[in-house]
Every structure is written in C-alpha cells, then in structure tokens.
Amino acid sequence: MRFGPVPIAEAAGLIAAHSVRAGDAMVKKGRLIGAEEAARLEAAGVVEVVAVALEPGDVGEDAAAERLAAAVAGPGVTVEPPFTGRANLHAAQAGLLCLDEAAITAVNRIDEAVTLATLVPFKPVVPGEMVATVKIIPYAVPGAVLDRALGVAVPAIRVAPYRLTRVAAISTLLPGLKPSVIDKTLRTLDARLSPAGARIVGEYRVPHDSAAVASALRDAIERDRAELAVVFGASAIADRRDVIPAGIEAAGGVVDHLGMPVDPGNLLLLGRLGAVPVIGAPGCARSPKENGFDWVLQRLLAGFPVIRDDIVGFGVGGLLMEIVSRPQPRDGGESANDA
To answer: Smaller CB count within 10 Å for the chain: N or C?
Structure first.
C-alpha cells in the first residue's frame, strides 16, 4: 500500500486518506476518488490530495476485517458487515463470553495493522451485545500479513449458553434477622437468575443449625429437583466446621473450598451434594451490586465447574467497589465479618 500526497490530476481511482472539501466538491475519508470528483476538486482549486494506492496482493480493510472476524468467531457469536476497516462480533444468545486468550494475543502479535479487542473473559452477555471487534488500522494490509493472522486464528470467541435453570434458596434464621431481609435477599437472587433464564424452585427458611441445613438441602434436590442450591446464612461462615459447611457434609455432600480472594465476597463457600453445586453465600450476596458471588454463580449457571484454581485466579481484579451494605469500611477500623 502506498500512502502520501498525489497530484489531483492523478487521484482518480485512489482512496482518499483524509476528507477533502473545496467549494461544493467533497470526498470523504476512506472513499474511492472518482474521475468526476477529482475533476470537481481540481476545478475548485485543489492541487493535490493525500491518497492511498493499493499494491498487488493488498487486501482492503473491510475485506480483511471480515475474514479475520469470521475466523475467530465461535459458537454463539455472529459477525456484522464490516465498515471503515472494522468488523464487530455480537452475542447470538445469552450466556458467558468464553475466550481463548492465547489465540487472541497471537493474532494481535502478528502486525500492528491487525487488532482484535474483546470484552473481559466470562462476562455475562445478552443477545445482540457486542463482544469483540476486529479493526484493521490502515486502509489495506498485505495479503501475507492477513494470511499470517488467519494462520493463528481459531474460533477463539464464543458464548456459552446458560444450562442450569432450577435453583433452591435456603436461608438460616437467628433471632434478630428480620423476615424482610430474607424477602429482599430472595428478590435480589431472583434478579440475578433472570438473565440466565433460571428461577427459584424451592425456598426454605430453617434454624441456623447444621441438621436443618442438611435436611433442607436433601429436600431441595430430591423433592424440588434443584440443579443448584444457594445457602444464605444468618451468620457469616467463619470456618469449615461452621453451620453451613457442617450441614453440607451432614447431608452427604463435600465442601470443596472456603474463602475467595474477591472483596466483597471473601467468605464464599463452594461445595456439592452429589452432582449438584452448593454455594454458601457471603453476606454481600444480599446486595444487588456486583461481588464475588456473581462470578461463581454465573459460571455454575452456564454449566462450568468452578475449581480451586478458578477461585484463586479471581484475585487479580478481585478488589471490587465498596458496597453500601457492608458494616465497616475497608480502609480502616475493625474488619467486617460478612464479606
């Protein structure tokens, strides 16, 4: 691709690098300069224009963007028609955005002319939401550059649909915990589940006692056919021997992990009863604001297993915004015990 000033008399058939206006004659940036337009610009006193001339083997920006976007689009992703060297990718369904980060980085390393940007991994998306964009920086790229980019491109961007739809909510009770708090918690959970097409199929309010938790878990799975259970404790989980983890084990389940490097969300517990995941919710899960509970809940609803490596990996970027419901601030004083 050649780029630079060209006498207006030689500009017909080239691409305008910048918009040019003179009198009533105008050529927009990125558009082909026609013979009539060149003549009108010359008549208006334009001597030269900055233009682009494609060379043998060059691929125009739109065609290059479209081909690369199609190569990286995976299941649940659509590619929009390109414009000005850009091809946008959109979610075709609700779900979690899944990325092959190594492949995306490999594409971006090929050449400065080729760029691929995405939303963050595992972001919940809705149909029609833009999830990524391919942008070709110049007006064309050498075919060899595009071939190299296509050579490392794989379907690196996909949307995993939500799979679990039946959720049980178990709340433990202690004196002083108002029913209105539990009601609000359930409304907040319902709002979190709605975008995934999930719903609460069983709701239990039981004493803050491990045997009561165990009984509720068994009923939720056996009677309500819950695919996921969330336990909201009247008191935060402080130890693996506390009421909620003890209740999971008493029901015949397993506690996989307690604690998470996400704040708010530190005191989340992850376990399972048979094949059914069980979340011991941190206190911040009562708030509608984003917290670590959301990250775990969304992955589980999409059918992804959440293991220790996933949880410890949340630490980078895991310091989230302050939430109003937290009793003490994080920047001093006694730490709160309901994160």
So the answer is: N
